[in-house]
Amino acid sequence: MNFQEIISQLETTKESRLHYYFVTEEQNQEIYALLVHVMGYMDKLYLVEVVFTVLKELLMNANKANAKRDYFLREKLDIQNPNDYIKGMERFQENIILRWNEQLAHLDGGNYYIGLLIKVDGNSIHFAVENNAPITQEELARINKRIEVAKNYNDLADAFSDVSDSQESAGLGIVLIQLLLKNSGIGSDKFRIHTNDKLTRATLSVPDVTSAVEITTTLKTKVLNEIEGLPPLPHSLTKVIQLCNNPDADLNMISAEIEKNPSLAADLLKLSNSAFFANRSQVNSILQAIKVVGLKNLRNLLYVSGVRKIMDGQYGKMQDVWEHSNRCSYYARFLATDHLHGNKIADTIAVSALLHDIGKFVLLSVDRAFFKKIETYQRGSDSGNSTLLEEMSIGLSHPQLGGLLAEKWEFPSDLRVAIEYHHKPFMAPVDLRDLVEIIYMANMMCDFQEQKKGFYAIDKNLLAKFNLDSLEIFSEKVKKVETLYKKSNG
């Protein structure tokens, strides 16, 4: 896919069309990367996740519709005949959905196609997904029912417990589209499905001006109250942080304050003697340790120490979150040094990665079962940004909550930005984007290792930037870093 060629088409003829027989996860990855280009060009980057989620759902539905028709033809069944339709659908789950990887071979080069059209009109963007198969009455009834059902929900939380579709796994799809468009400010009326005796066409128009709807849920209120009720960082730590922020700080005074806190002193000595600071001789004193790691790294260590003390005290040891964060921190430091950043920002990156998921502690504490339900829904899939489901269900995502916590505890701007944008690096301020991109990639590598995400869920542009733009290369890199991580943890 030539992004610049498509942008050029949009600039000159105002439209571009892509043609598929079957949209694979790799092609979805390319479409996401294309949207980052196109939506950025149209100054609508903030809507990338919403538009991609809608388009991916529509493309998947088109895949299923074409696969179904191909299957009916192979079985010599008339899809328009009610009796044949019932007969075919009895085996649809077993022969199509559970054998999804085989469908590309059936459809590639065949009679059925899928088209993706992008059209620019002033400052508005129009998308269309079409496939050359008319909707049956049964399918149309199911779609209309979903659209009607969606009107009853204000957020995705209600839909999770209420919507299912045993026949074609379409359950949340149409409902999700309606909620995304309504709450993003695009408007559910900007989505239409048309059909005739030759094709089915779903259209989405993104207007020039959108006004997002603020989602208010009981869960959101509980989460915000939880943040409000969290204590400030311990005074003993903030006192040292203030000293670290003073360019004229007396290192002996800082050393004396740290020595009053045995656990902090032990952490500092451990850090100063770690391989990342590569000292020839053992560091034995706090003053020497401060000189080795530097005031900025010391300050970051204080934030980590304070956050762990508060989170473990409030919520117990959520070991799964900390284990992921520790892994992410190691991966992030590896990426930073591997891509010639050296120690310039490597230590800030390691701390940012360690704290990137602090918003999850609050979500899990308020409703662990529901949050895990969202994770399970997307586990292992090559879906888009999972935080979008959090926003549509709760009104806030865990990176946004992490940003609120970072603000409450007066983190420096680099840590705050890394936490808040680690799922949306393209939205981060330009001067800190390198930092956030490394946190993003480290997080996705960890999710891949932990089987939470697939390779094709990762931003193709950033994979290319990190020289990881093939599944084989990416898998090998993850395997290498994971081996080093396990070795470092004994």
TrEMBL record:
Pfam families in alphabetical order: HDOD (PF08668)
Entries under SUPFAM superfamilies matching the protein: HD-domain/PDEase-like
InterPro entries in alphabetical order: HD/PDEase_dom, HDOD, RNase_Y/CdgJ
Every HDOD domain range: 230-425
PANTHER family for this protein: PTHR33525, RIBONUCLEASE Y
Identification of the protein by name: HDOD domain-containing protein
Organism this protein belongs to: Leptospira ilyithenensis
